[in-house]
Task: structure prediction
Amino acid sequence: MRSYVQSQQRHLILERRNISHRSWILQKKTCKLANFHQELLVKSKADTKVLVKEVKSLRNFQTELKQELGRSFKENSELERVLQKEKHRTEHTKNARGKLLHECGILRHRLQECCVNFLVEEEDKFTVNSSLLDALDLLTTSDNRIGLLLAEAQLLAQDEETSFSNDINGNDLGTDNEIRKMMTNLFIDNARLWKQVNSVICCALKTTITSANSEEETPSRKTALNKFLER
Result:
């Protein structure tokens, strides 16, 4: 009986030792699990902070992209507006140039109509194909009409200068102004030249009339122009 009790006691002691050992092992594992869990929590918090930063960065980047898109859209709209304005300006300039050429053509045609042609060329001499008084009247009318054309040409030059100045800038303005001035000056010089020709012919006709009247009174007197016309 006593040996049985002792045997049971030894068995209990061994069981306690085993339980104590298993408990120690469990505590150790629990401690490791707790440490691992703590590490996971720390890592999770760190990862969460990184994710939060990345989310903020992405949101900021998205905001910047929206702003950049807005600026690009605004710049594109501004560029389209400038292109449309440039297209309109170019079209207007083209029309203004066409109008200038058309007006110059009309003035040139009218100038040709103003130029009287009562002289008939016969070999080396010229003969008036109408009466001298009628020729003087034609020259006077021609001078008056040419004077009106000169005034219209000067007004046209001013109008076209204003039109070009409002629609052309930079080098184009200088070039077009030079062309406009050159065309206007050519027409004005041509018109003034015709007036000078008319003036010379008028003086010659008046001299001829005076000489003719003088010859009626004194047949022996002849002017140089009479001699020229009699060649």
